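hey so i finally got around to running the thing on that chain from the lab meeting. sorry it took forever, my laptop kept dying and i had to restart like 3 times. anyway pasting the input first so we r on the same page abt which one it is
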Amino acid sequence: MIVLRSPREIALLKEAGHIVATVFKKLEEELKPGMSTLDVDRIALDVIKKGGGIPTFKGYGGFKGNVCVSVNDTLIHGIPSSKEIIKDGDIVSVDVGVTYKGYVADACRTFLVGNVTDEARRLVKTTEDSFWYAVNNYAKPGSTIGDISNAIQTFCEKEGYTLTSHYTGHGVGTKLHEDPIIPNVGKKGSGPILRKGMCLAIEPMVNAGAVDLIVLKDGWTVKTKDGALASHYENSLVITDDGYEILTKLKGEPNGQ
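ok and heres what got predicted. didnt touch it at all, straight out
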């Protein structure tokens, strides 16, 4: 069931989203070669706690981290570890969920660490650009989920990239994963129609190589089967009268594209 959120609920989602965005701002300042993925997790937790939030992912389905930290060929769900050291030239996706007074915001950024290759930069930029292309054109009342899915798919495939159908975006609200499911591949005009008050986490997950993925024995870490780079970009947003509002950015931060 898709829930349309009230202004009071949206205000709480914005508070949760502000904490998420503050985590990304802190990581932009501090993430560097030589840190472990557990160091990243600790920085994120400190920001979340100082903001009055709770790390949504901690314990979710048994997940051990406070956030997901996914390096290079890890698409999603990387478990923070003191043994995984971030190196110059890596790309690092940090997926953050924050619960604030019972409401959840969810977003991800892929960071470029040091001297990153042009191909890695292009992958990360395309992933983010596909999000903005989709929402700027279709995140408004009367569009469908399939319009967003198809826009992400066509944008990324035009650049030679692939997108999995096994992992998707989702609604957000009082739970981390709510209806509707938001695939990154799909048919234009299909799926639920967008209405004012719908809160959505839209998240392109893009592979530089083949679409095939593997899940490690830990049951969480999802990697590209061919070892190619992968990138992930996500925001939570609310559908408004005539468009959308991003919930997971700081005041004054521009929308993309």
